Amino acid sequence: MAELLEIKNNERVQRAAIPHLEFADFRQELLDFAVAGGQVVQLFAYQDSGLLKLLAVLRNDKLYVAGCDAPDTFASLTVESEKFHMFEREIGEQYGLEPKGHPWLKMVRYHANYTGKKDLFGNDYSQDIPGNYPYFTVDGETVHEVAVGPVHAGIIEPGHFRFQCCGERVFHLEIQLGYQHRGVEKLLQSVPFKRLPIIAETIAGDTTIGHSLCQAQAIESLACLKIDEGAGIVRSIALELERIANHVGDLGALSLDAAFNPPAAYFGRIRGDYLNLSQILSGNRFGRGLVRPGGVTKIMGDEQKGLLIDKLTELTPQVEHVNDLIFSAPSVLARFENTGTVNYADAEKLGLVGYAGRACGLAYDARVAFPTEVYAGLPANTNHKTDGDVCSRAMVRREEIIHSTTLINTLLGKTEEAKSYIPEIPKLAPTSFVVSINEGWRGEVSHCILTDTDGKILRYKVKDPSFHNWIGLALALRDEGISDFPICNKSFNLSYCGFDL
Amino acid sequence: MLKVIKNRLEQGYRTSKYPKEPINLYKRFRGLPKVDNDCDGALVQRCADACPQEAIDAVTKQIDLGRCVFCGLCETLSEGKFVCFTQNFEMGTASRDDLFTCGDLPALAEHSKKHFKKLFGRSLQLRQISAGGCNACEADINVLNTPFFDLSRFGIQFVASPRHADGIHVTGPISKNMRQATLSTYEAVPSPKVVIASGACAISGGPFYGSDEIVGDLNSLIPVDLYIPGCPPHPLTTLHALLNYFK
Ligand code: SF4
């Protein structure tokens, strides 16, 4: 670790201060770090005055950064640690750099690379559909293949799923995404500044607050903007409301998949009530238009506070009663327990984050490890069931609903008011770097911004927690019945658009 | 069993009376914007320049609801002097042109194609296509199936197969990677069929306009019958549009 620079979450760093290593040293530092139990927050390529470079942000209980020149081809790190597998594929797809020896070098989102280098996957992008990829197959007389998507049977996002099965038993599930790819990073690097918050809010609609917080904090850091504590309180409440709404909705859906309908109906309605609380704060059910660099656009006055307190007082016992209904039904528990298990060792190797990680015993919670806004003064949560199965993922959500409700109640008791916000286009510090990390409801959301000599955005890197966790879902299905897919899928409930960008 | 009954009693009856009785949304909700035509031109220009979606025409003082994401910036900037957002969520239109507005929209019910009302008025089955958005539109469509809205009581259902559908309901800016799947799904729906563009993305590319990874306008691919603006459209906006256009 000698050659990595220790940084803080949202700390503005001069790019010149970031250690620029020889590739071989960079590779070794990263591998040593990963093998010692560290995780990768960001690893990406960027172009700087015609040169391609790599940058890595790593975490254990602290954050570190380092960079290097990017070789056109390099010895894959994934061979020695799985933690790099998605990042290397992404670098290959975005910049045409080849991680040699990568065990599974396939496209991530199906788009031409940014550099005009030879496409690593031999794709012809004038062809519309992703899928001209040789899927992993299992041979044998009794083996059959089930293909689902991209358009699914419900009102959900598109993605392609290939199951290799023997009868009902799943040998292997391969998930191919990219259908939602709309060029988010390219847009963030090229559009006028005024569009950035709108794009951040729509990276993953259900994580509107998570992503807009990352962007706002990163920009505030680069522009030396201080926000007042009142705004921090509103932002934190909004993030927790987002978490509760999504967890409540998912627990209802999980109950439905276990064929226990009443909780699904109740939680379907109650989820909407939480969204309506976000609407009280922001004017929008998803919290759109609330978080902006420099603060929050709307003040939380006594009226809004009162409405929130009243509604939470009404909802909290209802939620607990419905949860009790779900978690005391033997048929539901039997369906949840020992289904879709990912063990601790695999979860650690893949770097699962959020409730998917915590359900496997990886306690990491960015609100505790790298607190932003007002989280440093708030109590942490603990999870009691961490067996890595559907039941654990459901239990963790139940515990987080209770915890988040406590946090909101604590914050509603504070008296600091957000100052009224003035929309201004800030000026970013030149040749700087910042990484922002927040615990969105699905887990670690991270934005990274590099600026050039004029203070323009040179590289904007986005990472949604789903980027880490989709492979967890694929693993959960190994050796399970194919009919367990819906319930496993719901227990992870990953984002397609957040992954596809 | 006792718990089931206890919970049932606690939950009570939750279905909304809309459209028989009006619903009032909280005053912060941003619905149909109302433009003050006498507003100072310089202020209008300032709002138009600041609008992240280029949705304001400073000359006609109209807002394009097909591009607007209802972020509220123009209202904040003009302190309500140019734009004021009302809580009116009834914003569906039958033509793209009608979405350019100063605050008045034609009554949707009178502009629907009459044969649609005859064909689908009693039963409407839609196939939803999610084509490159952020999943907020999808989330607020799903909400229509919860007890509060209970969409199926109006004879409207979202179905699993395009073969069972009377039309498609499209969200998202049609990413290039979903172009073919969108067309194939449309083709699989038997005629006569209806096409609904829902949300700023499907109408104009939404937050992603200008990206070379998207088509950006459903109408350039398939002729659209019904436009539902919003980012995402409020569930009531969708409900109102479906009821007025088809019933
Ligand atoms: S509310 Fe609509 S018109 Fe006003 S600034 Fe935002 S996107 Fe533009």
Describe this structure in words.
The complex is a heterodimer of chains A (501) and B (247). Chain A has 501 residues and is α+β, with helices and mostly antiparallel strands. Chain A folds into 2 domains: 1-108, 2-Layer Sandwich (Beta Polymerase, domain 2), CATH 3.30.460.80; 191-461, Orthogonal Bundle (Cytochrome-c3 Hydrogenase, chain B). In chain A, 40% of the residues lie in helices and 18% in strands. Chain A contains 16 helices and 16 strands. Chain A has helices at 23-35, 85-95, 184-190, 196-201, 208-222, 229-257, 261-282, 302-327, 330-336, 344-350, 354-358, 366-369, 390-412, 466-476, 485-492, 496-500, and strands at 5-7, 13-14, 20-21, 39-48, 51-59, 63-69, 73-75, 98-100, 143-148, 160-166, 169-176, 291-292, 295-296, 432-440, 443-451, 457-463. In chain A, helix 5 runs antiparallel to helix 6. Chain A is globular. Chain B has 247 residues and is of the alpha/beta class. Chain B has a domain at 109-246: Rossmann fold (3-Layer(aba) Sandwich), CATH 3.40.50. Helices cover 30% and strands 15% of the residues of chain B. Chain B has helices spanning 2-11, 41-50, 73-77, 108-111, 114-120, 136-142, 176-188, 199-204, 235-246, and strands at 33-35, 56-57, 62-64, 83-85, 100-101, 124-130, 156-158, 167-171, 194-198, 226-228. Chain B has a 5-stranded parallel beta sheet. In chain B, helix 7 links the parallel strand 8 and strand 9. Chain B is globular and about 65 Å long. Chains A and B meet through helix 3, helix 4, helix 7, helix 8 and helix 16 of A and helix 1, helix 3, strand 6, helix 6 and helix 7 of B. Bound molecules: iron/sulfur cluster.
